[in-house]
Amino acid sequence: MSKLFNVAVAGATGAVGTQMLTCLEERGFPVKGLKPLATAKSAGRKLRFKGGEVEVEELTESSFQGVDIAIFSAGGAASERFAPIAAKDGCVVVDNSAAWRMDPDVPLVIPEVNPHATAGYRNKGIVANPNCSTIQMIVALAPIHRKVGIKRVVVSTYQAVSGTGKKAIDELHEQTKAILDSVQPEAKVYPHTIAFNCLPHIDVFLENGYTKEEMKMVHETRKILEDDSIGVTATTVRVPVFFSHSESINIETHEPITADGVRELLVNAPGVTVVDNPSKNIYPMAIDAAGKDDTLVGRIRGDDSIANGINMWVVSDNIRKGAATNAVQIAEILARDYL
Ligand code: L14
Questions:
Q1: Cα 94 from Cα 217, distance rounded (Å)
Q2: What's the sign of the alpha-carbon dihedral 86, 162, 19, 122?
């Protein structure tokens, strides 16, 4: 008989949290009991799970007694405060916030790329889920890095508003409608109108002129690929798309590789679907990636401006593979190999 687990989801009512419940259900995670946790404001709400309903409880210091695995997507502050409390109660935390990702004692895991790192959960009882933009980039780049070595990455992202949460999804709806109705749009979530616009600004600006989101892509890439020599430079942009982040990625490799060579590697890569037939207008698009777990890769072509250069276009559902699916996959590794 296989083991069943008591699972808590912190931030269960959010855009990622509700997707976590769906992923646990879809993937048949061995759940004994499910405990959705959120702020007091959401306590008492009912969420659908496996054909029934589960009641949301307030996230408190005593929420984790008797819980085996807690998946957190309740924001950095909640993770910082409650993850160590959960771990002290013997619960293993899979954390989707940025709070623990760069802690040297916390593994940062993409199951297709570095599942072995999960063992490091033992240090603090925490495994971190990488940033959404990093996950899809590394799912596509890891097989190339293993084969020919990546020296440098230049990435620009086109990020969906769902990454910010439900209020940003609503804001894009409302602003779009306002503009089409010739009404002045109201910007509450972002510093500027996002409808019919692009904002080169995700998360906060840092002293070095980059945003925190851009620097997450730099640091997390090196940690996951276990190679501090990789150069990464990023520009992260919010675009008026609801679901799925797109990325223009340029890489310089150590050994030469052709576009066909990259295509062949990626056709066989776990979690990747190559969508690359430009003559038929076939390439990865946000609306096709949305609702899927695979990362779509296309527009694979040589960059003739440098010696070993490749360009590609990489698209993935930021709420699924970028957050909920990846977190549930980590929980699956914990359940299968460690708990
Ligand atoms: O580091 O699109 O998990 O605003 C959460 C918000 C990533 C970006 C993280 C967004 C961020 C995301």
A1: 19
A2: negative
Residues 6+ apart with CB under 8 A from 310: 144, 250, 251, 253, 257, 259, 262, 300, 301, 302, 303
pTM of the model: 0.97
Name the residue at shortest CA distance from atom 8 of ligand 1.
Answer: 163
Active site residues per annotation: 132, 245
Structure tokens at 105: 């004692």
Between the CA of 51 and the centroid of ligand 1 the distance, in Å, is 30
Q: Among the atoms of ligand 1, which is closest to the Cα of residue 318?
A: 2
| Helix (H) / strand (E) containing 298 | strand 295-302
- What is the distance in A from the centroid of ligand 1 to the CA of 203? 7
Query: Could you please report the per-residue DSSP string of 253-272?
Result: ESS---HHHHHHHHHTSTTE
The series of mean pLDDT values per 10 residues for the chain, 339 residues long, is 91 97 98 98 97 97 98 97 98 98 98 98 98 98 98 98 97 98 98 98 98 98 98 98 98 98 98 98 98 98 97 98 98 97
Q: Which residue's CA is minimally distant from atom 5 of ligand 1? A: 163
The single residue listed with the structure tokens 């029934």 is: 52
- The DSSP result for 174-211, as a single string, is HHHHHHHTT-----SSSSS--TT--BS--S-B-TTSSB
